[in-house]
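Protocol step 6 of 9: fold each sequence in the batch and record its structure tokens directly after the sequence line. For illustration, a two-sequence batch is reproduced in full.

Sequence one:
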Amino acid sequence: GTRRKGHGGRDTEEGTLRGRTMRNLRRNLGRNLGRTGRRRTREHCCCRRAVQEEVCVFPASWSLDPKGSQSRSPTHAVTVSTADFRGAELTEPDAGIWIALFDADRKCCLANVRLPGLRFDRGASETFWVSCPELGRTVERVWIGPAGGSWQPEGIAVQRWTERGPGLSFSFRNASVLGERQEASAAELVAFDAAADRGRREAAAVRDRANFEEARRYMLGADAALVGLGTALLYLSSGRVDALNFGAGGAVGFVYLSLLSKSVASMGASEGEG
């Protein structure tokens, strides 16, 4: 295939996912860091170096050493939750994933995460550390995608650590499958307030249950009214026997409908609590 020189004099393959991913990332970094022309700012150099080198990644078992070098010690704990359905797992775990953290000043930290034991299987929640001493106090955005194959990360949690211990935490959510033969090779996610989002979800669940209960009562009332009306009309037109048969059948149907709707309501309530 056609080859060209990439940043740092390295060859990148035009037709590969890695080549497309890295070219897209460089374009995104250019937009995220602002239009600085040829000026080589410190944060831009940091991102360019991270694009070329696989650095700044530590396993979850790493112990923070307050006396260690700030530039070589992990500064952020990243927990990635993979969606729990067939095909959501990372199909090429040996290639790992790419992740970039951006602060409020658009400085970034980029790493290729390839660690033993990190498979990013479906339904799994896995943690690793990255060293991003250049970042500010907040992580405003996350850029994430598979280095090969396809994958759907569902939730990303980033917690900043200092010498005094855990600091601010930030949550991100993704709803798309990323990678090969997908609409996007990577996703750029914006942080949201997890507590506020959970409150909105709980409030929406309460509203949904109330609406369902109202619809249930209306449906049962309408069914009882129709059974009663049909029974009365049959009594006037066909006699007592036909009316009793119709009424008995309608009563059985009413009881079945009531039990069925009550079962559906209890299922919805249990899912909301979970």
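Sequence two, same batch, same settings:
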Amino acid sequence: AHVSCLAEQAKILVAEAEENNLDLKVKRARWARWSACSLCEQRYHGAVACALGWACWNTYAGRPESDTPRQLAMNLLGVGLYQAQHLEEALSVREAALSMARRLGGPAEHILTLQGNLANLYGQLGQKEQALRLRRDVYAGTLRLHGEEKEHTLIEANNYAMNLLDLRRFEEVKLFLRKMLPVAQRVLTDSHLITLKMRCCLAMALHDDPSATLDNFREAVTTLEDVGRIARRVLGAKHPFVGLTELRLRNARATARARELNVSSLADELEAMTP
């Protein structure tokens, strides 16, 4: 179908739902026509998602800011631009969406979601400091809303730690994750993907730190070995996280072996110099 036909169909279905004051479930189903096929129910992607995002926005942009379809249309436009890899434009839309939500006094959970989406975009555009500031705010806000021992809080803790790692703030990563990992292990268990990701992040901070000692390298290797075993058992050998962990483990083992050889060589030289 032509994009214009898909847009017209979605527009008509949503208008009928509004005019007839249909229930929320029906309204949601009809709104979904802007983003997914009515036959196979698969979401549109790439250029089609982007074109429908613009068509949706042009349909509802004239409504008041507080109008729900207008807010949904702005979100759909941001998603479409992102999927088509128009990241700078997507960033502008998501910044506007966050600003609007704050003006309207939107729910805290919704604002945190918008901030998280914006942080992802900043990171992809190389604006790492901006991404970190938002991630810190999202983690702090989620902690206030849900407390420390909730899965959503631990997900945001992991996201924050990964942003710190991306900026090579190794000491902050280690301090933060040594505090949060016992919580994740208690609440989610050792086999949960978020716990595994946290442990992997800690191992990377130990390994990548320029001031790392041989003991740090050994801890990184031991941690990655354990994470790899658990991930392979729980997630299956073909899961992307398993492959990534095994790659990191190979690198960590090579680094640890090289450091051990250096230490051994230095010890031999010092012994030879002893009268």
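Proceed to step 7 once all outputs are recorded. Observation for sequence two: The mean pLDDT is 93.
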